[in-house]
Amino acid sequence: MVRDYKEILKNIENGNDLILHNAPAILFFYANKKIGYSDVNAILALQNATLSLFGMGIGSFYAGYVVAAAKGNENILNILELSKDNEIYGCLAIGYPKLRYERWIERKKPDIKWY
Q1: Which residues fall within 8 angstroms of residue 15, CB to CB, at 6 or more apart?
Q2: Helix (H, G, I), strand (E, B) or coil at 35
Q3: How far apart, in whole angstroms, are the C-alpha atoms of residue 67 and residue 76?
Q4: What pLDDT digit, counting tens, does each position of 76-102 carry?
Q5: Is-contact 92 49, C-beta < 8 A?
Q6: For residues 89 and 70, what is the distance between their CA atoms, to the nearest angstrom?
Q7: Which residues of 44-72 are buried (b: 16+ CB within 10 A; e: fewer)?
Q8: Phi/psi of residue 26, each to 5°?
């Protein structure tokens, strides 16, 4: 796994951001790890943020590598000014999409039977 991170860093240094794809902003979702279900609540907040961003025409994607890099990394906690009681549970890279799709694939209407 360490080799993967070194390769990723090498790509970023060469101007090829394979993780965040030059996203102009990222959102971290964190919570106090000592509180029950804080992880679930953070992920639910991430999902709601994704839907809200989409509604505003802002693109987003889950940045799992950033979350993995943040696990147990005191430097990242310090940069974000988070206490050691907090844990980062999710990260979204966000920005306005370069492409807009005008046409969608037609789908059959679902055959739903209510009883």
Answers
A1: none
A2: coil
A3: 10
A4: 889 999 988 999 999 999 999 888 778
A5: yes
A6: 9
A7: ebbeebbeebeeeebbbeebeebbebbee
A8: -135, 150
The pair of structure tokens assigned to 54 is 């989409």
Contact 1, 68 (CB under 8 A): no
108 lies in some domain: no
In the chain, the number of structural domains is: 1
Whole-model pTM above 0.85? no
How far apart, in Å, are the Cα atoms of 81 and each of 28, 35, 76, 86, 111? 12, 19, 8, 10, 51
Domain that holds residue 53: 23-95
Kindly report the CATH number assigned to the domain that includes residue 89.
3.40.109.10
Cα–Cα separations (whole angstroms), residue 79 to 46, 63, 82, 97, 98: 21, 18, 8, 27, 30
* Residue 38 belongs to some domain of the structure: yes
Q: Pick from 61, 59, 57, 79: which is nearest to 69 by CA?
A: 79
Q: Which two three-digit tokens encode residue 7?
A: 């390769």
